[in-house]
Amino acid sequence: MPATPRDPAVDAQFRLGRELAETAARGVLGGVFYVLGWLVVAYLGHLPRDRPLLALGLLLLFVGFTAGRVLLARRSAQAAGAERQLLNAWWALFLVTALVWGGITLWLLLDPSLAPTRMAAIICTIAYATAYAHTFAMRWRRAALGIALLFLPSVVLSWRLADLGGVAFALTVYLVYLLSALRASRNQYERQLSLELALRHQRDRYELQSRTDALTGLDNRREFTVNLERAFVQNTPLALLVIDIDHFKQINDRHGHAVGDAVLVALAERLRLHFDPPGARLARIGGEEFAVLLEGDGGNLALATAEQLCRRVAASPLAADVAGSTVTVSIGVGQRRRQRTPDEFFAAVDGALYRAKQQGRNRVCGLD
Ligand SMILES: Nc1nc2c(ncn2[C@@H]2O[C@H](COP(=O)(O)OP(=O)(O)OP(=O)(O)O)[C@@H](O)[C@H]2O)c(=O)[nH]1
User: Fold this and answer.
1) Residues 81 and 185 in one domain
2) How confident is the model at residue 4 (pLDDT cuts 50, 70, 90)?
3) Could you read off the pLDDT of 196-255 as tens digits, one per residue?
4) How many angstroms is it from 268 CA to the middle of ligand 1?
5) 2: CA distance to ligand 1 center in Å?
6) The complex's ipTM?
7) Any domain includes 216
8) Has 288 been annotated as catalytic?
9) Number of domains in the chain
10) How far is the CA of 20 from the centre of ligand 1 (A)?
């Protein structure tokens, strides 16, 4: 059974897509909280009355940031191929918002006339920084920068303002807590993502196994049926070979089951060399029975290709252990013409294989 290839590029793309989806889901509402925070802070500081233009200008700025988030969320939903640029745009918006809010708190703390609104501003700052630590740990360095932009002005200035001494201590302790919470969230995010990737790999592996023949690695009968039905629906030129090893029971009886298996594996390898996947779909559809679906131009050459294969198998031993005895195959082959269903087509080609067996084996029979 072939192993499922683990493609690091596919994993990286999955991580990026997942990160963008989570950033968009968590980020889209955040802008509204800055608008609300600013409304409260401006109201408590009597800014609409004392400095209406500034109050309105900052309100419009936060509304603009929120609109930017909504636009980015829309684009993120159809991001195929532009995930990295969109993530950078999200973070630019987050960090600019944090910078503006940090600047506002700096101003509020420095201006004694705005003392009544300081606590509201600090509480909003704590809330915004907490959101960074718990919901944006996917990029911990950027989140730490966001926390610093929001929080440092409050921490630094509260240490310098005599009336905020107690708050300064609490803010400093909280900042340390936030940074450790950010680290913990980051580890949890990574663990969850790794688990999800492992589950995806497991799902892909089971999915591949359900389509593949365990011994030869070719498609199994179920996959063959799916491909035959699909090719039928697409209505492109289509040919089918059904190949059966002659007297396979004798090979098992004479040389043992393990050698029989080796012959099956060797024939599968011969088929891979003889045909040209993916133009041909190769399957093991029964014990010692194989099928080849040829789509497109290859279908026109089916009879000649089948005869060549038949000759080549008879000419050289399929596996070292049966070198003394000749292994041959019988092949039924046909192009899709009047058959109305995949079952009808398969039955017709299988009938051709039956005739090849009846006529003495080691030969190719086409449709009547
Ligand atoms: N080694 C091995 N043998 C298998 C496997 N699957 C089926 N067989 C054997 O394949 C043999 C098929 O025998 P038959 O159906 O009588 O066909 P045959 O001997 O090839 O005779 P003709 O098809 O008439 O030429 C049986 O002995 C099965 O046990 C397998 O996976 N490995």
Assistant:
1) yes
2) low
3) 999 999 999 999 999 999 999 999 999 999 999 998 888 888 999 999 999 999 999 988
4) 15
5) 24
6) 0.97
7) no
8) yes
9) 2
10) 54
Query: How confident is the model at residue 298, as a pLDDT?
Result: 61
State whether 251 and 112 are in the same domain: no
Tell me which residue has its CA closest to atom 5 in ligand 1: 287
Ligand 1 pocket residues where CB is under 6 Å: 215, 244-249, 252, 257, 260-261, 264, 287-288, 357, 361
Claim to verify: residue 148 and residue 19 sit in the same structural domain:
yes
Same domain for 275 and 176: no
**Which position among 288, 289, 307, 344 bears the catalytic label?**
288
Location of structure tokens 């051709």: 352
> Domain check: are 116 and 231 in the same one?
no
Supply the range of the domain harboring residue 48.
8-205
0.80 exceeded by pTM = no
